[in-house]
Each structure stands twice: as structure tokens, then as C-alpha cells.
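Take our chain:
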Amino acid sequence: MMLSRSLRRLDVVLGLAFVGLVSAPSALAAQLDTATATGSSSIYFRNINIIAQSGTSGQNPSGTGSFTVNGQLLSGTVSCLSVMGPDMGAGKPGSPTIAVLNLQGTTLGVVTVELVDNGGNGADIFSAAPGVNPTDCSPLTGGLIDTLTNGRAIVFDAATLPISKDQCKNGGWMTFPQFKNQGDCVSFLAKQGENQPG
């Protein structure tokens, strides 16, 4: 009897948690730039495992990464992430998204990694070079460059969101491609205000 009550309570708690997740505003959850890579490349890189995320301006980078190059395992924590792409989403053929990230704490110190998401199918690119400054995520100008032959690089370029109604006014809403007009932008901010803890 007591076990069945406990199970019913657990069902209720899990059900409420599910409802909370489903009804939570997805706009905020989707507003992280992310970069992941797994697999191996044709020549240089093996055992690739990269998971990184940050705010749309590179703020609060987090994640880890590891890969083997020339028999040496390099692994560390993500200290910066810069994502760019014309599509405000994942990469695709002819419209790649690119991530540059630094792994700090590897046996080489800082290592800069560049991922080019070209939509998969053997077209994604993985590059790496020794880095200097852990917070400088400038695009690579050298290093080893190779195509992923198995696995995938997925880079998601999240759309930037306004944080004040003033950013929506006087045509400012046009800098946020997810809005159709100024009213749509202002309405979004009003709804976000309703969902903020008070």
C-alpha cells in the first residue's frame, strides 16, 4: 500500500516536471551557440569528442574536448567559443557554420580548434593548432586541416535576442531575423518578462 502511494507521488512529480519542461519558453533554451564533433578524419585526427556552448556573443563558454593527433591525446576544457554562420542555425552545403574554440589545459597548453559544419556527408572539416591566449577565438590561420571521414561536426549559430524594448524601436527589430515587425519584437520581450521569476 505504501509502495503504491509512493509510486503515485513519483508519477505526479514526474508528470509535473514534464509539463514544466514542455511549457518552458523555448526561445531562451535555444539561444546558445553550440559546437559538437565526433569521429575521425582522413589523415590527422582520431577519437574526436568535442562538446562546447556559449551565449550568442561568446559569453560563459563551457564544455570539454579531446582528440588524438599523431598518437598524442589532447584534452581540455573550453575557454572560449566563437560561432558564425549566415544561416542562424546548423550548417548545410553551401552555407556552413563555423566554430572556433580553445581547449585549455591540454598537454600542449592551449589548443585552438576550428570546426566547419557543411551539413555532414563527409564534408565537415576539423582543424587544430597550438593556441596562445585561452580567450582569443580568432579564426585559424595555420595548423592541421582535415575532413571528417566518419562522425560529424555540428555547429549551431543561435539567433541573438533583444534584451530591451528600445532595441526593437526605430527599425532595430530588423537586426533580429526571427521577428516580422516591431510589434512582434516588443511582444516577445513582454512575454519574456512574464516568464521571469519575480
In short: The longest strand covers residues 72-84. The chain has three helices and eight strands.
